Amino acid sequence: MQTLLAFVSIAVATFPAILAAQEPAAAPTMKAIRFHKFGGPEVLVLDDVPRPEPAAGELLVRVLAAGVNPVDWKVRGGMMRGKLPMIPGYDVAGVVDKAGAEVKDFAPGDRVMVYLALNRGGGYAEYATAPAKDCAKFGKDLAPTSAAAIPLAALTAWQALFETAKLAEGQTVLIHAGAGGVGHFAVQLAKSRGARVLATASEKNLDFLKELGADVAIDYRAQRFEDVAKDVDVVLDAVGGDTLGRSYGVLKKGGFVVSIVQPPDPARLEELGLRGSVMLVQPNGAQLAQIAELVQTGKLKPHVSATYPLAEARKAQEASATGHTRGKIVLKVAD
After folding, report:
1. What are phi and psi of 223, to 5 degrees?
2. Which of 7, 94, 226, 272 measures 20 to 30 Å from 202, CA to CA?
3. Are residues 146 and 177 in the same domain?
4. pLDDT for the residue 26
């Protein structure tokens, strides 16, 4: 009888542990900023969500920092509809946590940055997945907050100037909003190709333009840029509207206007013998690696004007939406 009682006692004591061992482990979670409906900055909330897993050809990145761009709050406001709830953010810098099947060039522990496509997003989170082909490594001497400022804006400048407008050595380019996220990279990239650079900004940013390498810095409030810029080969427009409309007149015949905000007017292009295009940046790991090399050699420097913790993403987007950011705003996600 005593033996039976002892057996029952042991069974009762160990039964919960047996059950626990049989239960599947809880899926890992992470903190992420999401919005459950489109609207103003107030719709951004900090949620606990399932941690993603990398598919074949993808990396799981532990996010250290995430860039903030105008497209973030434009998507939040309903510019591009998608499945809700949505994690915003398209710039990520972090450390590879896991590599999916078929990944050959990256391994856990690698420091990487990536532009996440607009139909993907997911940057405002502790972890994000990304196609390995879209990623580029960055060195330990580059702070993650600086690396996170690079992908979307620098790729936009690169693709607009070199892929779309075919800017070449010895040509002259006019860059609107030269102190902004895309603009401050465009000024430096154009100089790295041997172009003569004219750039517009407010008075407080004229010295900044000069530091970036601009040959001519134009205060767009005090000067009409068309009174300064003459017979240029390329215009990079990040403003649109009247600024784009007035830009046709500064181009030489056969010149190229590339806008990242709206399509140039085909009738005006034909009338003046110009070429032009609107462009939307695309992820490109090979180009991003070339950009990372320019950063490594000191020919390109990201400027981060402000950092916010992940939980204050709302404040970061509000600051971005003022339209007066010098360089980039970045969310610091982890150390």
Report:
1. -130, 145
2. 272
3. no
4. 75
Q: Is residue 180 part of a domain?
A: yes
Domain of residue 58, CATH code: 3.90.180.10
Cα–Cα nearest to 112, from 282, 285, 322: 285
pTM of the model: 0.91
pLDDT digits (tens, 9 = 90+) for 138-159: 999 999 999 999 999 999 999 9
Region of residue 241 (phi > 0: left; psi between -120 and 50: alpha; otherwise: beta): left
Please give the Cα distance from 40 to 44 (Å, whole number).
Answer: 8
Taking CA atoms, 242 is separated from 265, 292, 309, 319, in Å, by: 12, 34, 36, 24
The answer to whether the peptide bond before residue 85 is cis (omega within 30 degrees of 0) is: yes
**250 and 192 in a common domain:** yes
Averaged confidence pLDDT in the chain: 93
DSSP state of 281: -
Q: Total domain count for the chain?
A: 2
Neighbours of 119 (CB within 10 A): 7
* Long-range contacts, stretch 74-82, CB < 8 angstroms, 24+ apart: 75/118, 75/121, 76/35, 76/38, 76/39, 76/41, 76/43, 76/44, 76/317, 77/38, 77/39, 77/40, 78/38, 78/39, 80/118, 81/38, 82/119, 82/121
Same domain, 74 and 160: no
Q: What is the pLDDT of residue 114?
A: 98
The domain of 81 spans 29-150+300-332
Q: Does an H or E element contain 144, and which?
A: helix 144-148
User: What's the CA gap between 168 and 161, in Å, rounded?
Assistant: 9
Given its phi and psi angles, is residue 39 left (phi above 0), alpha (psi -120 to 50 degrees) or beta?
A: left
CATH of the domain at 165: 3.40.50.720
Q: Verify that 119 and 170 share a domain, yes or no.
A: no
Rounded Cα distance, 127 and 125, in Å: 5
Q: What are 3-31's pLDDT values in tens digits?
A: 444 433 444 445 445 444 555 667 899 99
Ranges of the chain whose pLDDT falls below 50 = 1-13, 15-16, 18-20
Contacts of 333 (CB under 8 A, 6+ apart): 63, 64, 65, 66, 94, 125, 126, 310
